[in-house]
């Protein structure tokens, strides 16, 4: 099972030249391996309550542990409307996953969902300023 790959994906989506907004197909939260780490659990304790501790070797520090949010089952925080139930405190891996990235588009292809299209100029104009600023920052050259 492929895991949610944020660093490479974010760069690929930014370099593709388009602005993409997630349409909440929910596929990444259902079909990718999503892991959280100790700092994510400190920020959002519900992760520990809801998700199995996936890797914990007795000789390793807690900072090396990881919790599995999604693997064979969808993430427990994914709502019926495909919204994230812990959006403000979701793990860093989820924060960094880019809509419109190669992995996002591949998932959609594999599940028969049409590709996510870049925002039109009209959509960009109607975005709230904060969203537009964040998306623009993603497109800035490294
Ligand atoms: S696969 Fe892409 S479009 Fe679908 S929910 Fe994930 S980021 Fe959004
Ligand atoms: S925490 Fe939220 S964004 Fe991350 S996999 Fe679960 S539902 Fe998706």
Describe this structure in words.
- This protein is mainly α and about 140 residues long.
- The chain has one domain (about 5-140).
- Helix content is about 40%, strand content about 10%.
- It is built from eight helices and three strands.
- The protein has helices spanning about 5-15, 25-30, 40-45, 45-50, 90-95, 100-110, 120-125, 130-140; strands at about 35, 55, 65-70.
- A three-stranded antiparallel β-sheet has the order 1-3-2.
- One iron/sulfur cluster binds near residues 22, 25, 104 and 107.
What is the fold's blueprint, element by element?
Layout: H1 6-15, H2 27-31, E1 34-37, H3 38-43, H4 46-50, E2 53-55, E3 66-70, H5 92-95, H6 102-110, H7 121-126, H8 129-139
Antiparallel strand pairs: 1-3, 2-3
The structure holds iron/sulfur cluster (2 copies).
Short description:
With 142 residues, this protein is mostly helical. It is built from eight helices and three strands, in the order ααβααββαααα. It has one domain.
Q: What structural category arises from helix and sheet content?
A: mainly alpha
Which stretches are poorly predicted, pLDDT < 50 over at least 5 residues?
Answer: none
Separation of the first and last Cα atoms: 30 Å
Number of strands: 3
Looking at how many chains there are and whether they match, the oligomeric state comes to: single chain
Helix content: 25-40%
Q: Identify the overall geometry.
A: globular
Largest sheet: 3 strands, antiparallel
Specify Rg, calculated over alpha carbons. 16 Å
């Amino acid at each position: 099972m492929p895991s949610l790959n944020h660093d490479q994906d974010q760069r690929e989506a930014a370099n593709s030249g388009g602005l993409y907004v997630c349409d909440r197909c929910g596929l990444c939260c259902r079909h990718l391996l999503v892991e959280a780490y100790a700092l994510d659990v400190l920020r959002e304790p519900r992760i520990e309550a809801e998700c199995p501790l996936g890797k914990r070797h007795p000789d390793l520090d807690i900072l090396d542990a990881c919790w599995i949010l999604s693997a064979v089952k969808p993430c427990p925080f994914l709502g019926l409307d495909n919204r994230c139930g812990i959006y403000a405190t979701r793990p860093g891996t989820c924060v960094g996953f880019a809509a419109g990235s190669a992995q996002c588009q591949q998932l959609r292809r594999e599940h028969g969902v049409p590709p996510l299209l870049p925002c039109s100029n009209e959509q960009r104009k109607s975005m709230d300023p904060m969203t537009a600023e964040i998306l623009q920052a993603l497109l800035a050259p490294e």
